[in-house]
Amino acid sequence: MTLNLAPNFNESGKRYFREFSPGDDFYEALIESHRDLSDEQSALLNAKLILLLANHIGDIAILRTALQLAREDH
């Protein structure tokens, strides 16, 4: 398995008319989850989210690739 870099957002049972709309829905939910949090609370939310999603992915090779790509240009 390789890291999927193509747009891959969807919501079961929901039809979208534009390819980017599901990604917009996720971005809106992400921003909303940070609303009214302090910087520290927001950082903790991000850390928890990363760990939850990493556990869901589960494949260490995929996670290493994602970490390398995320670190590029830093």
Give the rounded overall mean pLDDT. Answer: 92
Order of helices and strands: HHH
N- to C-terminal separation? 26 Å
Q: Supply the number of helical segments.
A: 3
Proportion in β-strands: under 5%
Structural class: mainly alpha
The percent range for helix content is: 55-70%
- Overall 3D geometry? globular
Largest sheet: none
Low-confidence regions: none
Number of strands: 0
User: Compute the gyration radius: what is it?
Assistant: 15 Å
Please, could you describe this protein's structure?
It is built from 3 helices and no strands. The longest helix has 19 residues, at 39-57. The chain is mostly helical and 74 residues long. Helices cover 61% and strands 0% of the residues.
Task: Describe the structure using short key phrases.
74 residues; mainly alpha; 3 helices; globular
Give a topology summary.
Blueprint: H1 21-34, H2 39-57, H3 60-71
Kindly summarize this structure in a few lines:
The protein is mainly alpha-helical and 74 residues long.
